[in-house]
Write a structure and sequence with these properties.
Layout: E1 3-10, E2 13-24, E3 27-31, H1 41-54, H2 76-93, H3 97-106, E4 107-108, E5 111-112, H4 120-125, H5 129-134, E6 136-139, H6 158-161, E7 180-181, E8 184-185, H7 189-194, H8 198-202, E9 215-218, H9 228-235, H10 245-248, H11 255-265, H12 272-277, H13 306-314, E10 325-330, E11 340-350, E12 353-362, E13 368-379, H14 381-398, E14 403-408, H15 411-418, H16 429-440, E15 443-448, H17 455-463, E16 471-473, H18 481-489, E17 493-498
Parallel strand pairs: 11-14, 14-15
Antiparallel strand pairs: 1-2, 2-3, 4-5, 6-9, 7-8, 10-17, 11-12, 12-13, 13-16
Helix pairs in contact: 2-3, 2-9, 14-16
InterPro entries: RNase_H-like, RNase_H-like_dom_plant, RNaseH-like_sf, RNaseH_domain, RNaseH_sf, RVT-Znf
Pfam families: RVT_3, zf-RVT
GO molecular function, one term: nucleic acid binding
Length: about 500
């Protein structure tokens, strides 16, 4: 047996946490200790010190996030559960030999075995297998690894969507690739007749133009990956957020004073009464009596008030004067000859909230060529901006406009063109890759514009919030005509900028 041990120290204390790579009955994997093994003497002593220090009935109060009234400390038992969840996710997604061997041993048709398996790794993560499957969805690539009926790849498994009896589920073994032909859906007529809504369901899923592998996506993150931090927050029990926490936990308040106020809110100040309740008999040592204003470092800019200035000077707090501002003239510029410029924008009532996108195509003479506004449902503002860019590329590709200049007031959209998969949410990733693929067959450039010069696209995007289906225009709509004429005449706009 080959054994490699790596000890991990946390806050200078060795908690016995080990990562072990071993060959165990033909399986090479990672061993994760169970929660009970983390209850060491060091941890018990640490819990006792916290309880004695703050006088808490349960030490897990301090393990709640700041917004929920805690101190945002990490619970070791919860961290161990999160590690097991992350490890289960890694096993299902990894293509390493050890993961393939383990999956071949404990999974049958993507379902876990019911009998016992002599594997410490599987014993630690088998309880999280169902959690991972319920909170994951498949991103369609070539479709070879996705069961067409049983797997979740279009929000809801098709067997649940169409009410197929459970005893038939094991007999449905066809994959998504069986219903794809040249990158397009190819549903047999008999199947479409038996399930009339099937074509509408599958057509909502974007098939990538370039061949790629299928990927399992964690639903609750934009990246689609499950990190240990995400697993910890998923496992953590969530309570109602408290409004006062946003006031005391502030970057401009020294942590020692925030902690003092936190103890006041929980009635954990060592006053005479509280000390007597805890069995301590000593003179009062309340820390409030000796409190002074400390921590004079702040990043906030000072106001123009003489009273505030005198107060800050009296306590010797460093003053940051407001930065000087100036009016900056910004203008919309037409494209060059044989080019079209498309200004795009997204709108969202909340983040996330009801959202839409819009755009306007203009030629080198600043004449209107084409416009669109599309409702998107509930989404973030960045999601709406990306949808506007993708819709503009799709229209340019459809009408064979080969020289297109995209202009947006979102810096993130410009960055997404340089890093196609780093910023784009997983819900849009296939569609975004297809848009990039189409853009490579054209002359497409993208640049940033200040929102003051992007008013026409902003009006179109806001119009999309009030419609149910996509709107397309061959002439400028009346509600955007004034801003359009100002851009055409070169009327400048003004923006307040910092020096």
């Amino acid at each position: 047996m080959l054994l490699v041990v790596r000890k991990v120290e946390m806050n200078g204390i060795n908690h016995g946490r080990m990562t072990i790579i071993l060959i165990d009955r033909g399986i090479m994997g990672l061993w994760a200790p169970r929660p009970s093994r983390l209850v060491t003497s060091e941890r018990l002593a640490c819990m006792s010190r916290l309880q004695a220090r703050f006088g808490l009935d349960s030490v897990y109060v301090v393990c709640q996030p700041f917004a929920q009234g805690g101190l945002n400390l990490r619970s070791l038992s919860m961290l161990n559960k999160a590690t097991n969840l992350k490890l289960c996710w890694t096993v299902l997604n990894s293509q390493d030999i050890w993961a393939k061997l383990l999956k071949a041993r404990v999974l049958r048709n993507k379902r876990p075995i019911q009998h016992h398996s002599f594997s410490s790794l599987w014993s630690s993560i088998k309880e999280d297998f169902g959690i991972v499957i319920e909170n994951s969805i498949w991103s369609v690539g070539n479709g070879l690894d996705i069961n067409f009926w049983n797997d979740s790849w279009c929000d809801t498994p098709l067997v649940d969507l169409f009410g197929i009896p459970s005893h038939i589920h094991p007999l449905l073994v066809s994959t998504v690739s069986d219903y794809l032909l040249n990158g397009q859906w190819n549903i047999p007529p008999q199947l479409a007749q038996a399930f009339p809504n099937l074509c509408n369901v599958v057509n909502q899923v974007t098939i990538p133009l370039n061949q790629s592998e299928d990927h399992l996506i964690w639903k609750h993150t934009d990246s689609g990956d499950l990190l240990l931090k995400d697993a910890y927050h998923f496992k953590l029990q969530h309570f109602q957020e408290l409004h006062w926490t946003k006031i005391i936990w502030n970057h401009d308040i020294p942590p020692s004073k925030s902690l003092l106020v936190w103890r006041i809110m929980h009635n954990r100040i060592p006053t005479d009464e509280n000390l007597l309740i805890r069995g301590c008999y000593m003179p009062s040592m309340c820390s409030i009596s000796s409190t002074s204003l400390t921590g004079s470092n702040t990043s906030k800019a000072s106001s123009n008030s003489i009273r505030d200035f005198s107060f800050l000077k009296y306590f010797k707090i460093e003053i940051h004067h407001p930065k000087q501002t100036y009016l900056r003239e910004v203008c919309w510029q037409p494209p060059g000859a044989d080019w079209l410029k498309c200004n795009i924008d997204g709108a969202s009532n909340g983040n996330p909230g009801l959202s839409s996108c819009g755009g306007i195509f203009r030629n080198s003479s600043s004449d209107f060529v084409y416009g669109f506004a599309e409702p998107l449902g509930v989404a973030t503002s960045f999601y709406a901006e990306l949808c506007g860019a993708m819709r503009a590329i799709d229209l340019a590709f459809q009408f064979h406009w080969h020289n297109v200049w995209l202009e947006t007031d979102s810096v993130l959209v410009v960055s997404a063109f340089n890093k196609p998969t780093a910023l784009v949410p997983w819900q849009l990733r296939n569609r975004w890759k297809n848009a990039i693929h189409k853009a490579k067959s054209m002359n497409v450039i993208i640049s940033h514009i200040f929102r003051e010069s992007n008013q026409v696209a902003d009006l179109l995007a806001n119009h999309g919030l009030n419609v149910d289906t996509i709107c397309l225009w061959h002439s400028i709509p009346l509600f955007a005509k004034d801003s359009f004429e100002k851009n055409k005449l070169g009327v400048p706009c003004f923006r307040i900028s910092l020096v």
